[in-house]
Amino acid sequence: MFSGSRGFRGLAAATIIALAGVTGAEAQQNGGLPVASAPIVAGGDARAPYAWVDFCKRMPSECAVDTREAEQIELTAKTWKLIVAANVKANRDIEAITDQEHWGVVDRWDIPTDGKGDCEDYVLLKRQRLAEAGLPRRAMRVTVVIDEENAGHAVLMIRTDRGDFILDNKRNAILPWSQTGYTYVKRESQARTGWASLGGLSTSTVASLR
């Protein structure tokens, strides 16, 4: 579905060390709220997935970037509860099905209004619901990773003042980006309609530098 390297590319060693430098912060609770590692630093432009381009032609409002919106969400207890509930509800509401089974094509992105979809469709539904609840869309980015099966996978990265967290249709638990075991390939840009590289940063790379 997606192409990308599992190897680490595109980010300087100093950047990786900075990403790994929040010792002991992961998965801690601070005032009842989670704390993640330092946020992932995006690099230069990346090629958009072709199915995303098609989706944006059909639903341009879902891809538009409003630079007046905040880049991060202030993570309060109320907001965290909202995010967790949205993740669980979407995972429960949608029947996992491949695009080939669903649409007869290899890859198609859509809002799963019929209750069926694959990983990108879960992501788009979660973001739509959270944006309708008042969270800034700009802080919620579709992200392409390489998963534990060495396959392309899409997740929703929520950027907060306590770090970057991952909403995933594979689990109800919302994890800090560095605890997923994934390799991070690219995500939607926060500066424009398009994509930014994440350099193939893997969580194992971060762990080895601690």
UniProtKB/TrEMBL annotation:
Pfam families per UniProt: Peptidase_C93
PANTHER family membership: BLR5470 PROTEIN (PTHR39327:SF1), PTHR39327
Protein name stated in the entry: Predicted transglutaminase-like cysteine proteinase
Species this protein is from: Bosea lupini
Superkingdom of this protein's organism: Bacteria
